[in-house]
């Protein structure tokens, strides 16, 4: 396997916890599904996933070349990325259970509009670029070589999980929307769990290797 198996398992667990916690992408897809039906919800997910493919491809190409030219830069990027993950964890806990304003504006829309809006909104979102650069390298081991391939494998899994989780939300948007609206306590617990995972991951990865 071209990726470190221990890091890969950690990547799967962390990504799943992050995916199931209601964030801007999930709430955007939820809004599209509620107002435009299951098809709009699925196409909104496809738009978000497409933009993530672009982010991951650019990150893989740029960072692979960067690591090859300056191997010691990986350590610096890992520490900075770990600090950013801790920051995300703290923010998730501080704002637990709150509605994210980024998800607003998904008023009645066609499937085509849902796809394009999901694509463009995520594509030009600097937070997504920062997250991609901070998150994926934490699970890449330059010692195994073929850094670009490790990036692409992790990216493909990330996008697949994104589509699985958010696609399910889009498909069952009405029921999930009602559940989230009534279960503020559950949302708070999910945010705390996600924040705790990010903080723990950031501290752990900054300290090792």
TrEMBL record:
Organism per entry: Streptacidiphilus cavernicola
Subcellular location: Cell membrane
Bilayer topology: Multi-pass membrane protein
InterPro entries: LeuE-type
Protein name: LysE family translocator
Coiled-coil stretches noted in the UniProt entry, renumbered to this chain: none
Domain of life: Bacteria
Annotated TM spans: 6-30, 73-93, 114-136, 148-169
Lineage: Bacteria, Bacillati, Actinomycetota, Actinomycetes, Kitasatosporales
Keywords attached to this entry: Cell membrane, Membrane, Transmembrane, Transmembrane helix
One family name in Pfam for this protein: LysE
